[in-house]
Structure formats: C-alpha cells, structure tokens
Design goal:
The structure is a single chain. The longest helix has 29 residues. This protein is mostly helical.
Length: 150
C-alpha cells in the first residue's frame, strides 16, 4: 500500500491545491455554478483516474487488482478532502460550496449536518465503485502504451 500512496502523491497534492482553489473562489463571491465550472476539481478527477491505471500497468507492472486499488485510493483521498471540507464548513458555520444545499440534496432547503455527511458518505461509496470499474478499464488500456518512449 505504501507504494500505491507513493504513486498517487501528485494527484493527492493536486487535490489539496484544488481544495484551496475552491475556497479562494468562494471568497470571490462567485455563484455556485460558476465557481465549480472555474475549479479544476471537477474535470481533473476523471483525468487522474484515466491516466493513472494505464501508466501503472505499463511502467509499474500493476496487475488489474493493483490498478483498481490505485484508482480507489485516488478517489478516497479526494472524497476524504470533500468530507472534511463539508464538516469544517458546518462546524465553523460558514457558507461554502461544500455545504451548499443544492450540491448536497438538489434542493434549496437548508440541509442539516447529519444529512450532509450521510450524503457525502453515499458519494464516497458511489465514487469508489465507479473508480473500481474505471480502474479495471484503465488497466486494460495500459497495453496500448508503448513500452519505450522514443
């Protein structure tokens, strides 16, 4: 597992930077939809998942199970950051993109801390399942990468 954590350190650092970026965008008083559209968080997660597993297979020799483990670990790191940011938003009592009711339940009605955390836990499970599927798919695409770069 240590080797997998070493392998995903770049995406992990980028998630932390993206979290700071989202908080910075919030300070600019951007509307929720524009803030999410401007943040690299939304579109970089699939990119990290798409490239990590084929590269792991070709250059690290990962088997399919190891690629799935890597994909799920990448998602776990990002989801733990989202979960922590949501909890901090509620506990500190500030309005952020992470406790925005429409993003959590799809409704404009205020959401309690317990419901928000349950919704985030559901997102964690759903994203880990998707990551496992995409990890296996990514591993299968690793055979298309040339063994040596010329």
């Amino acid at each position: 597992m240590r080797e997998k954590l070493y392998f995903i350190r770049l995406p992990s650092y980028s998630w932390c930077c993206f979290l700071l970026d989202v908080w910075h965008l919030e300070q600019q008083a951007l509307p929720m939809k524009l803030g999410i559209a401007c943040s690299p968080w939304s579109f970089c997660k699939p990119i990290w998942r798409s490239y990590g597993e084929p590269i792991g297979r070709r250059y690290r020799g990962y088997r399919v199970g190891e690629s799935i483990q890597t994909a799920v670990t990448i998602v776990l790191v990002s989801q733990i950051l989202i979960w922590t940011a949501t909890a901090a938003s509620y506990l500190v009592g500030i309005n952020t993109f992470f406790n925005y009711p429409v993003a959590i339940t799809g409704s404009t009605q205020p959401v309690s801390f317990g419901i928000a955390m349950a919704a985030r836990a559901g997102g964690l499970v759903a994203n880990c399942i998707a990551a496992a599927i995409l990890g296996a798919l990514g591993w299968s695409l690793g055979g298309l990468i040339p063994a040596e770069l010329k």
